[in-house]
Amino acid sequence: xxxxxxxxxxxxxxxxxxxxxxxxxxxxxxxxxxxxxxxxxxxxxxxxxxxxxxxxxxxxxxxxxxxxxxxxxxxxxxxxxxxxxxxxxxxxxxxxxxxxxxxxxxxxxxxxxxxxxxxxxxxxxxxxxxxxxxxxxxxxxxxxxxxxxxxxxxxxxxxxxxxxxxxxxxxxxxxxxxxxxxxxxxxxxxxxxxxxxxxxxxxxxxxxxxxxxxxxxxxxxxxxxxxxxxxxxxxxxxxxxxxxxxxxxxxxxxxxxxxxxxxxxxxxxxxxxxxxxxxxxxxxxxxxxxxxxxxxxxxxxxxxxxxxxxxxxxxxxxxxxxxxxxxx
Length: 328
Prior knowledge:
- The protein is α/β, with parallel strands linked by helices.
- It folds into two domains: 36 residues, no CATH class; 283 residues, Aldolase class I (TIM Barrel, Alpha-Beta Barrel).
- Strands 10-9-8-7-6-5-4-11-12-13 form a ten-stranded mixed sheet. Strands 1-2-3 form a three-stranded antiparallel sheet, with no helix packed on it.
- Helix 1 packs parallel to helix 2 and helix 5 runs parallel beside helix 6.
């Protein structure tokens, strides 16, 4: 089985098998141990390379305070320390990662260190050069803001042969659209070749940052209706959810055994974590950095192991994995 994977981490309690070509990852307990609740270090890092965004989307969970982007040297420090443990990085922050001044070097440095880079973009100002370097990514997601640039970016990425996803916010305003997509409906604005689309990933609306006071949280009835159909989709592409949404729909849905193995509830401080553009470590990108972030002064591992906010997240999730430590 190991022959199918080209990256392998192992300690006395568990092992992680990872295929850097297709993203397949298996984590399992060994030597009589159960599958791990928390890893020695995260296998996925969400790295906020962007500190600046000029678009000011009203629902942005990152808020609108512009700060400097992460430096290339800081990014390399993270990768140098984490490459043995981390299999994938999700590039994010406040703005489009493909517009970082060292975007190409960031992507290449990940691959040089046997880490798969992924990122999400609005699609605004996507250049041919950015598309070319994106061929080194595991996947690229375009946030569906229902703008012309959204669908132009999707069309160009798909035609370039890049594994391309749509990120669709799940809120009380988008519920009807999300529900109909699962039923097999193709939105009229989707003018790209849908046969080349890899997946639509539904992301639960986060009432943080700029969107903290927006009345967009879906109702329990909406979550129930969505949960009842998400595991039996009628669309031609794959569908997925972030763990925040999974927490809710598992209360109503009836996933198969295969689907149960493919979804997980909150992994923050257990399998994944977030690093801010100014080099602060925190369990989750949706958390308040003034409350949960810890400056990286002596590396990631001491914070991951002993940081107060990380321990608080784990304590809550150990009690109930089907919940959000931020009470979303």
